[in-house]
Amino acid sequence: MRWYVATWLLVPAVYGVLSLISFSVYASDKRAACRGERRIAERTLHLVDLMGGWPGGWLAQKSLRHKCSKRSFQKIYWVTVVLHCAIVGWLLAPSMARLFGAI
After folding, report:
1. Quick one: which of 7, 26, 40, 71 has the fewest CB in 10 Å?
2. Exposed/middle/buried for residue 6 (C-beta within 10 Å: 0-12, 13-18, 19+)
3. How many CB atoms neighbour CB 35 within 10 A?
4. Which domain holds residue 11?
5. Integer Cα distance of 100 and 34 in angstroms
6. 42 in helix, strand or coil?
């Protein structure tokens, strides 16, 4: 049973770290855009979001007003969110089945 507790404590921590990284990457891209400097590739932003940083990416889009009006970016962003959630659900399904089977 301890493994399940550790997993459920670890998952929010990982999302928190990845969200901070994602927010930082979006902020760096926004800063570069304002300064007319070289930008971070959109595929990099999407990759960080796909890896689990999508909550931080969403927060950065809203608070920094960055990439929120570009429709093509938003479509791919939401596909990465759904894909990420599907992968995580698939990975956690066996442990959830064992957990509920043990109850």
Report:
1. 71
2. exposed
3. 8
4. 2-102
5. 51
6. helix
Q: How far is CA 42 from CA 7, 29, 54, 81, in A?
A: 31, 9, 13, 15
Per-residue confidence in pLDDT tens, the chain, 103 aa: 565 666 778 888 999 999 999 999 999 999 999 999 999 999 999 999 999 999 999 999 999 999 989 999 999 999 999 999 999 888 877 766 666 665 5
Count up the domains in the chain and report the number: 1
Alpha-carbon distance of 59 to 50, in angstroms, equals 15
**CA geometry: angle at 17 spanning 83 and 34, to 5°?**
85
Residue type at position 4: Y
| pTM above threshold 0.90 | no
